[in-house]
Amino acid sequence: MNPPSGAPPIDSLMEHAPALYGFAYARLRDHHLAQDLVQDALVAAWKSWSTYQGGSPLLTWLTGILRHKILDHHRTSSRRPNLSSAPDGENLATHDDLFNEHGDWAIDPNHGMQALMQSPAKAAQNADLRKWIALCMEKLPPRLHLLFTAREVDDLPVPEAAKLAGVTEGSAAVMLTRARQALRLCLQENLIR
Amino acid sequence: MDERLTVRERMRRRFHFFACSVCRGFQKQMLSLTALVRMSVSSREAEQPDPEFLLAVRRELTRVAGDPDKDDPHHSS
Fold first, then answer.
1. Any B CB within 8 A of A99 CB
2. Terminal Cα-to-Cα distance of chain A (whole angstroms)
3. Among residues B74, B46, B68, B48, which one has the least CA distance to residue A10?
4. Domains in chain A, number
């Protein structure tokens, strides 16, 4: 392999390393894994610099490479035996029996949830809610967490989020519903405690 | 929340929500949940990496820049 023509100054790549690390850590919740994948992504960026068109900001391009590294990691790890009993959150306590057999509400889902029923902006500023959501998100299994953040935070369409998390589109839809229900139920349990 | 609704489905939902206060409350919860999740993830994104890690990455990039063929499996010497 020849060095890419007009190789980027290493400083230009390193300038974005902290942001890339933050991106990876927020999604993977594992310092060492985030570090490994950021390093891999930056080395890959250096090697494929000639493909960077310059049409988008450098950080956007680098983040795209990092996303692929995360996807590759999940593809590889999904082929390994998984010791977790519920890798995709299959056993999450999500079924709070919202609906009865007629499709009517079986419980009052809004009980104790007034803080969450303000405007989203107000809820996001509520310190208690922020504390609880951080704790509740910790309970999501890694793959479900990755899928959920890809969809809810990065606004990726379901097919792309599914690809990133290494699951089928059909599974992704079920998993996303499961994640929302798990988080809502977890918040409710903590708020009415 | 993940599938695009048809016009007919959107209309049905609108009428249903008009009559269902529990549903309106539930929808507010879902919107707030998304805002909270975004806030939570963006606060994690502010996490700063270990300076040692940054030095290690710089060293690795310098090494690759100095000898880009070294770890290229397709390279034949």
1. no
2. 61
3. B68
4. 2
Q: What is the pLDDT of residue B72?
A: 47
Residue with tokens 């029923």: A117
Residue-wise pLDDT tens digits, A67-78: 889 888 877 776
- For residue A151, give the H/E element and its range: helix A142-152
Nearest CA in chain A to B72: A1
Q: How far apart are CA A28 and CA A88, in angstroms?
A: 14
Torsion from C-alpha of B45, A187, A159, A146, nearest 10 degrees? 40
We report the CATH number of the domain holding residue A140 as 1.10.10.10
- A110–B65: do the CB atoms touch at under 8 Å? no
What distance lies between CA B35 and its chain's CA centroid?
13
Average pLDDT over residues A98-112: 81
The identity of residue A76, as a single letter, is T
User: CA–CA separation, A33 vs A7, rounded Å?
Assistant: 27
Task: Determine the Cα–Cα distance for residues A62 and B14; give it in Å rounded to an integer.
Answer: 41
pLDDT higher than threshold 90 for residue A146 = no
Beta bridge partners of A43: none
| A28 vs A23: CA distance, rounded Å | 9
Is there a single domain that holds both residue A19 and residue A73? yes
Asked if B49 lies within 8 A of A153 by C-beta distance, the reply is no
Domain containing A39 equals 10-79
Is-above-0.90 flag for pTM? no
